[in-house]
Amino acid sequence: MLSEFLPVLLLFGLATAFAVGSIAVSSLVGPRVPNPTKLAAYESGNEPLADVKNTRFSVKFYMVAMLFLIFDIEAVFVYPWAVVFRELGWFGLGQMVAFIGVLGVAFIYEIGRGGLEWD
Amino acid sequence: MTGLDVVFVLVGLLTAAGAVLTVTSKNLVHAALALAVTLAGIAGVFLVLHADFLALVQLVVYVGAVAVLFLFGLMLTRAPIGREALDSQNRGLALAVSGGLFVVLSTLIVLAFGDVRVDAMTGPGIDVIGIAIFAVWVLPFELLSMLLLAALIGAIVLARREDGESGEEAEVTRIEVGDPPINESDGPPAEVAGDGQAELPAGSGGGGQA
């Protein structure tokens, strides 16, 4: 049973080894010639506007996070539903339509309120 | 000790270490990362106990979404990010509450599942879970969509500012300026009275340009 997840464990180990290995190798053999520009916070190539510490982020990120959370939970329920879809038949389809429909109301409301517009 | 026991002990140690780091870390972001490790470790515990679907849900919802929401909560509020004095004054109370909760929960778990052998356990298949949700617990499932709807609309109402509402503009990201910002297009930074903060366009301080 648990041995079915051995490939997942292998992938996990491989990913960890790659991450640790990359950092270790770059710190061992990488050249280290620091200057003020290199040590500055990276801001997509622009001059840093401000100290990153104590920065508050725009509340719009929170909207995106909430949307993600809601549809994440929706996806979790779609998964077992898809497995037993044939056994449930039209009743199951109706349930899922109602479930996603109610969440769709929230989605339409958010679009209507401009929740996805950045400015 | 079987291989299962070894995996369980390793996963348990990882989870416990993450939990201890979560409460002892002086850096809030590190604490949130340790919390994510703890939640992922709990997913591993579920996997060892043959609850694959629960492990998946734990990963998708808790590690994927709740931990992210936690980080957002830190970054959106005035919570001090970085090394700060974060110690609560209620150490004794926290110790009593968590200790009491630990005793109650472990007693309940041992009473309920104390004589179940882990290697003899088989969790319900995902088809059994699907039938249970969509054939037996239909009403709670549909009510859940109402709950999610309420949560989402609540979030929108909290985060969006109505036109004409008083107070600070929602479009502005306020960031604390350490050094004078170098910003040719906008001129010198506008100092907000008193608290020494500059108003900058949304996204300029939040990594939104990436």
Structural commentary:
The complex is a heterodimer of chains A (119) and B (210). Chain A has 119 residues and is mostly helical. Chain A has a single domain (2-112), classed as NADH:ubiquinone/plastoquinone oxidoreductase, chain 3 (Methane Monooxygenase Hydroxylase, Chain G, domain 1, Up-down Bundle), CATH 1.20.58. Chain A has four helices and no strands. Chain A has helices at residues 6-29, 36-39, 60-83, 85-112. The model of chain A has no long low-confidence stretch (mean pLDDT 82). In chain B, 59% of the residues lie in helices and 5% in strands. Chain B is built from six helices and two strands; from the N terminus they run ααααααββ. In chain B, strands 1-2 form a two-stranded antiparallel sheet. Mean pLDDT of chain B is 75; it is low at 166-172 and 183-210. The chains are: A mainly alpha (119), B mainly alpha (210). Chains A and B meet through α3 and α4 of A and α1, α3, α5, α6 and β1 of B.
Task: Please describe the structure with a list of short key phrases separated by commas or semicolons.
heterodimer, A: 119 residues, mainly alpha, Methane Monooxygenase Hydroxylase, Chain G, domain 1, 4 helices, 0% strand, flat, B: 210 residues, Four Helix Bundle (Hemerythrin (Met), subunit A), 3 domains, two-stranded antiparallel ribbon, 6 helices, 59% helix, globular, disordered C terminus
